[in-house]
């Protein structure tokens, strides 16, 4: 009897506690004159960044990284019952600050809650780079072990014997059809980013676990005795 080919997919999923939090913050102001409005935003931005700059250390934290966007300005020309009103000038700047200490992040957000022109758009949770790579490596291996176990289950059901691997690939590479799921291990950020809010900042600090998934396709063969 010719060898039997068994083609299977292995998948693995794991929940891992988040380790890093990147706060997305916006500083904005409005008024009748562009100069004072821009100056107010720049001053408030300096207040927001005072502790961030002091805590910034890419290797030791607690602030691993921060990004400050350029100041954006605009002007509105309102009217009332067809009559023009004085123009309203707007200015804003966005910041992203990555913390590796949730408690320190919470304290910083509480301080921001006292600033009138500062809003928190949300927090993006993630793993550290090194830990992410290790978790994804384990996930890929576990997905392959699941594929092997599944193929052996099929072979055992037909009393065919022990299977051996012929080919292993990311999802979609053993077939020309489009793959419906990701081909490699990845960490999915928690869904449902927190809405922008100027109060209740403590509610933002409820980091969900990071979902790490991996999938693999494999062909196994078995030669019945």
Automatic annotation (TrEMBL):
Q: Which InterPro entries match?
A: 26kDa_periplasmic_antigen (IPR052022), SIMPL/DUF541 (IPR007497)
Q: Name one Pfam family in it.
A: SIMPL
Q: Which terms does the UniProt entry file under GO BP?
A: DNA damage response
Annotated signal sequence range: none
Membrane-spanning residues? none
- According to UniProt, the name of this protein is SIMPL domain-containing protein
Q: Which organism is it from?
A: Pseudonocardia ammonioxydans
